[in-house]
Task: inverse folding
């Protein structure tokens, strides 16, 4: 089974000041989650966004210039770069940190959709808990958090889904197989949005669309993530053994409130990657992918057709059906989760064509559209009423007392794979079969002895020596569990690593 995870940047507001400083507010929010003082542990030395999966290294990125500008502005601040980031590694193996202007939560690596949904929901609880503590310090309910992708003022923030992929798969095969799928994936994974906008431009109310990110897609391929945003990000930063693996880093996705939409978003992408690895993906090539993203998003009636290179025209439904049918032919019977995905994917496409009302509580864009249309009928207003943008925003509020989606959830009107008990467990522990859970266990047991951490490496201090746990190739679930057993029984990191290395030597 493939590993995957989600990084979510949350929108943040504060209503008791005339102008918010998002850098400070995001930092203070992350710090509010801490019960002890911040300790610098995350090692950024292993991160290099300039490597491009197309086989070259870019000398500079648009975001480098923006970071330079940020550095000038931040120079007056009474804290360092690392203090500003306030990068926390949590006991479940997740990261929670300030991504300059947004608090960001990255799930630990997961192997199953059930684990991923629970870990993704943990992020909502963590930012809510941090906001509650921050508000107590401020003396009022001033700070609010939104799991969405736009501030309705031309700024977009991301929800990135990530997948471990074999380096043996040629990158051009990933491009050919994924681009048409990703362009049409918003049909099942879009979060819904009132109005249109583009980067740094005026928000225009009035049109309902499927996706919040579609307006901000500007290129088919590219390594940048903040400018010229691409449908398929080419960053080659595997966080694993580079000779064996890639990390597919997708920035086109919306942040979903519906668990069902998250499951389909990540699960169907996993199936398509399986198809690509088998050389069984549909032979589809879009003529203008960037234009197609926007065209399909702005057609909630699902009648729009986009042009292929061969001159044919297909709708989003037809594009998705081609992929779903190919996956069914090739992958049926592979495992229980794949069979569930194939069933639900096909049924969702059928209902979108015949009776989408049955998808309320399952797909975000359908659920939000139903809520807004109900409100519009009661208030006798139209799609161009500015009131709707505020309701759109409140759909994503992570406070159960205020969030429209969470209100539906409390009433039992949405589909769930998780339980509150499973989310509580995921808050405490990462998956037991991935290095994410292993990372979290090290935080739980040896927190004071951790010198630095990366996704694939943990460095411990032990007396006058340092020891490190290399997880760059630690993906076999049985091996992960063996390592976790050793760490649980060990009295120190040195003892744990010595026992782990002895076991590996015996096996080789």
Result:
């Amino acid at each position: 089974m493939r590993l995957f995870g989600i990084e979510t940047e949350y929108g943040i507001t504060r209503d008791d000041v005339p102008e918010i400083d998002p850098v400070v507010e995001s930092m203070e929010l992350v710090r509010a989650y801490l019960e002890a003082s911040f300790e610098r542990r995350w090692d950024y030395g292993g991160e290099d966004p300039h490597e491009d999966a197309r086989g070259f290294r870019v000398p500079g990125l648009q975001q480098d210039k923006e970071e330079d500008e940020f550095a000038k502005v931040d120079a007056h601040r009474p804290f360092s770069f690392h203090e500003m980031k306030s990068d926390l590694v949590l006991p479940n193996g997740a990261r929670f940190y300030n991504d300059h202007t947004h608090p960001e939560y990255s799930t630990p690596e997961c192997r199953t959709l059930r684990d991923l949904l629970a870990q993704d929901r943990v992020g909502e609880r963590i930012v809510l808990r941090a906001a509650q503590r921050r508000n107590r310090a401020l003396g009022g309910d001033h700070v609010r958090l939104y799991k969405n992708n736009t501030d309705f003022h031309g700024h977009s923030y991301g929800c990135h889904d990530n997948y471990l992929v074999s380096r043996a798969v040629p990158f051009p095969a990933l491009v050919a197989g994924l681009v048409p799928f990703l362009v049409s994936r918003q049909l099942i994974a879009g979060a819904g949005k009132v109005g249109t906008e583009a980067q740094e431009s005026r928000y225009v109310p009035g049109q309902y669309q499927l996706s919040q990110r579609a307006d901000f897609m500007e290129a088919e391929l590219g390594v940048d993530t903040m400018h010229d945003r691409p449908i398929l990000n080419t960053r080659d930063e595997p966080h694993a053994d580079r000779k064996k693996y890639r990390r597919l880093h997708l920035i086109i996705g919306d942040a979903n409130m519906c668990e069902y939409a998250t499951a389909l978003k990540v699960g169907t992408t996993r199936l398509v990657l399986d198809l690509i690895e088998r050389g069984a993906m549909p032979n589809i090539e879009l003529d203008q992918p960037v234009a197609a993203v926007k065209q399909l998003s702005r057609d909630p009636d699902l009648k729009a057709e986009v042009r292929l290179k061969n001159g044919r025209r297909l709708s989003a439904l037809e594009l998705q059906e081609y992929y779903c049918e190919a996956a069914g032919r090739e992958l049926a019977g592979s495992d229980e989760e794949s069979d569930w995905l194939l069933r639900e994917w096909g049924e969702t496409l059928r209902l979108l064509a015949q009776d989408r009302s049955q998808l309320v509580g399952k797909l975000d864009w359908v659920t939000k559209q139903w809520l807004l249309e109900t409100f519009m009928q009661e208030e006798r207003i139209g799609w161009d009423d500015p009131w709707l943008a505020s309701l759109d925003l409140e759909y994503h509020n992570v406070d159960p007392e205020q969030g429209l989606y969470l209100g539906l959830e409390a009433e039992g009107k949405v589909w769930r794979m998780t339980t509150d008990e499973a989310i509580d467990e995921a808050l405490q522990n990462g998956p037991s079969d991935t290095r994410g859970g292993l990372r979290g266990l090290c935080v739980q047991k040896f927190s004071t002895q951790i010198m630095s951490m990366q996704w694939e490496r943990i460095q411990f201090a032990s007396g006058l020596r340092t020891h490190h746990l290399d997880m760059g190739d630690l993906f076999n679930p049985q091996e992960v569990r063996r390592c976790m057993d050793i760490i649980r029984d060990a009295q120190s990191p040195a003892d744990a690593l010595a026992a782990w290395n002895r076991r590996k030597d015996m096996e080789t």
The mean pLDDT is 93. Residues 118 and 344 are 19 Å apart (CA to CA). The chain has two domains: 4-422, 434-507.
